[in-house]
Amino acid sequence: MFLPRSLLLAGMASMLSFSTHAYAPLDYLPQGSRVAIAIEPLSGDTPYLTTSNRDHFFPPASTLKVVTALATKLELGDEFQFKTTLESNGRDLTVRFSGDPTLTREDLKQMLSEAKQQGITHIRGDIWLDNSAFTGYERAIGWPWDIIGVCYSAPSSAISLDENCVNASIYTNKDGSTRVYAPEHFPIYVSTTAKSVSKQQFEQSRCDLELQVSPDNHYQLQGCLVERSKPLPLKFAVQDPALYTQRTLNSLLNQVGIKLEGNVRVGQPFGNNFKPVTAHYSPKLPELLEVMLRKSDNLIADNLTKALGAKYFAQAGSYNNGTEAIKQVILQKTGINLERNKITDGSGLSRNNRFTSEDMAAVLRYIWKNDPQLDLVKLLPTSGENGTLKYRSSMRNAPIKGQLVAKSGSVYGSYNMAGFGLDKSGKPSTLFIQFVADYLPNEKGDDKPTIAPITQFEQMFYQDVLKYSQFSPKK
């Protein structure tokens, strides 16, 4: 059902003259698009501009990370860190993982080096990789099958290493074949049957480059790739983080000179007679949230969600208890009831997530009112200057550049934004919401450069956000 493009305009209507029957920027969007927008003053409750469907549900995409950030700030606190410990019982070693999304092979190597310095040079038993901090699915319900091979959909796992992501590249050969390269220290296998074709052949054949993945961290590229002089960089999501870490750990043991008689096993070891040897800590929560919001890091968002569920319910973290904890924490500590919204993960990647612009506005208003304690606003990307908004087409130039702080969000057919407009002194003056769904523009028939409809809409809408944010009444 196509929603009529009518607006309810209330309060300060004389500032910017809008028709109550149509809001001109909406005309840039393709027929059939669904839209919920709002511009509200932070100094009052009456919206400057809003659509009539504030209680309708939209896929929030990565704007959901704003909600995740608020819940984790309120419950986990600024001192929260993921902790990875190395423990020994004299025979076996245990690495207890907590889902640290920043843990690297170098961190793990340093822990083994410290163990060796304490006299652990020969392990007669096994090394256990304890993954009991999390339980349940490593990918949330509603994650599309066709993106599980790329790094922005890396699995959310207690055993996380190197961001659960590996780099590779593919080259085209003159004989029409392709070859792939992955650094030797990555314990993965990559192959290619893809063909190298001309641009004309590519367009005529409708053949594209495709990725097939298997659970044992094997990746196969197939299909077609247009001839190129330089390699095409690739990033693969690790399919089995535990297996990846097992193989990495075996390599690191050789590098630091520790002999292992047994095996590297996954799971909880038997007995409780293990004593700490060393530990590694992630950055504290504010630094994690800055990366999560600025770079829209899905792994940080989802592992924080599971850590939140673990703390709130005193059990192994999961998508199920983590998303419920988000709702419960926000209700108990802010009074905002999010029960009607569908939250399936903490990152916004799931296509099952649904959120209303009305509830997103309530979350933003709470963040602004309590920002002296929360210190969250400064972590959001700034339009045209940093994070995911640095190169956004609608924000790269004046007057919008540097005048908005917001979290973007995009899944198939959806283009969202939630944040604040700044006054002339650079302080938040308004909050604004943009939920655009079912955005399906017609495909172009040529290569002529054009401005995308969503970019044209955003440029006009953000200019209105700016006008309301920096309005100075005549004296």
From TrEMBL:
Transmembrane segments: none annotated. Coiled coil: none annotated. Pfam families: Peptidase_S13. This is Serine-type D-Ala-D-Ala carboxypeptidase. Residues 1-22 form the signal peptide. Its EC number is 3.4.16.4, 3.4.21.-. NCBIfam families: PBP4 (TIGR00666), PRK11113.1 (NF008322). Keywords: Carboxypeptidase, Hydrolase, Protease, Signal. GO terms for molecular function: serine-type D-Ala-D-Ala carboxypeptidase activity. It is an enzyme of class 3 (hydrolase). GO terms for biological process: peptidoglycan metabolic process; proteolysis. It comes from Vibrio ponticus. InterPro entries: Beta-lactam/transpept-like, Peptidase_S13. Belongs to the peptidase S13 family.
